[in-house]
Design brief:
By secondary structure, this protein is mainly beta. The chain has 2 domains: 4-41 and 52-128, Elongation Factor Tu (Ef-tu), domain 3, CATH 2.40.30; 136-283, Jelly Rolls (Sandwich), CATH 2.60.120. Helix content is 4%, strand content 56%. It is built from 1 helix and 24 strands. The strands form 4 sheets. Strands 1, 2, 3, 6, 7, 8, 9, 10 and 24 form a 9-stranded antiparallel β-sheet that branches. Strands 11, 12, 14, 18, 19, 20, 21 and 23 form an 8-stranded antiparallel β-sheet that branches. The protein starts with a strand and ends with a strand. The model has no long low-confidence stretch (mean pLDDT 87).
């Protein structure tokens, strides 16, 4: 139990609640429960109803803890930390596993009297999915350095030699074992001239293409997560929105449960592309 911790972070500040003082965890609701809103339709004279759709509801996490001493100081600390309209991130650590979820404070309630006073903290999570604290990253095409210098030797050979080599995997498989669809971050980096980079999911026969001309040093980033479907292009150190370059009919590819087989391409200059695909595993509970 002492390895179970709740850590709320906002900006550079944090509050830790666990089986330790000054905030002793008493109970917590909403970590393991998933609620889904199911929409059905009933026809005239029909037994039962017809299923139409279902969506996940927002998650309400309620934390109950005790304050042993310095009640007024800790109460003011809680009030100043959990501010209205200020979002934060809750990290849930259970042994060697830590997952996170973004929240907006709903309320903080502290008992006014008592030697030990109970505090109740209610957090609303519009996105009900918990995420891993690190992304899974796959490098489809990158440059790898070939030079290794011994600690006591630094000698340049007379003959020509290779300094780098390109490691290319046009097709990679990303396994999503969490059984929750998750968004991708796809980064195309040009080392020369490239036209119209694209990414395709082989099994589902869907993909996206970006109509643009890239030059050495340009970086095109596509994100496909919930409320984060964006295209950004960085050229000459300046990043700007490039959603207008998205080809109509393209799919905001995501990592579906199971194996996802991705292949990148370009209208021309594919050999001048470095491609990295990353995503964050997501879960319906801790």
């Amino acid at each position: 139990m002492r390895n179970f911790l709740l850590t709320c972070k906002r900006g550079g500040e944090s509050i830790v609640i666990g089986y330790r003082w000054p905030l002793w965890l008493d109970d917590v609701d909403g970590l393991t429960k998933s609620e889904f809103e199911v929409e059905t339709e009933k026809g005239s004279g029909q037994d039962g109803e017809i299923y139409k759709s279902s969506t996940a509801a927002k998650r309400n996490i309620v934390i109950y803890c005790w304050i042993k001493a310095n009640h007024r100081t800790m109460r003011e600390r809680l009030y100043s930390f959990f501010l209205p309209r200020e979002t934060g991130t809750l990290y849930v650590t259970d042994g060697d596993v830590t997952r996170k979820i973004d929240y907006v404070p709903e309320f903080v309630d502290v008992d006014p009297t008592g030697q030990q006073r109970k505090a109740t903290i209610s957090l609303m999570c519009p996105d009900p999915q918990f995420k891993d604290i690190t992304d899974e990253r796959v490098e489809m095409a990158t440059w790898e350095g070939l030079i290794e210098w011994p600690d006591d030797v630094m000698e340049i050979p007379d003959e020509p030699f290779e300094m780098t080599t390109k490691r290319t995997n046009l097709v990679v498989t990303i396994e999503n074992s969490s059984n929750v669809t998750r968004g991708l971050t796809v980064q195309f980096k040009a080392t020369g001239t490239v036209y119209n980079p694209s990414l395709f999911e082989v099994k589902r026969q869907k993909g996206f293409k970006i109509l643009c001309e890239m030059h050495a040093g340009d970086v095109l980033t596509v994100t496909t997560g919930l409320k984060n479907k964006r295209v950004k292009l960085k050229q000459n150190g300046v990043e700007k929105s490039a959603n207008n370059l998205w080809v109509y009919g393209s799919t905001w590819l995501q990592a579906e449960p199971g194996d996802n087989v991705f292949r990148y391409d370009a209208g021309s200059g594919i050999g001048n592309l470095e491609v990295v695909v990353s995503s964050t595993p997501a879960y319906w509970g801790v």
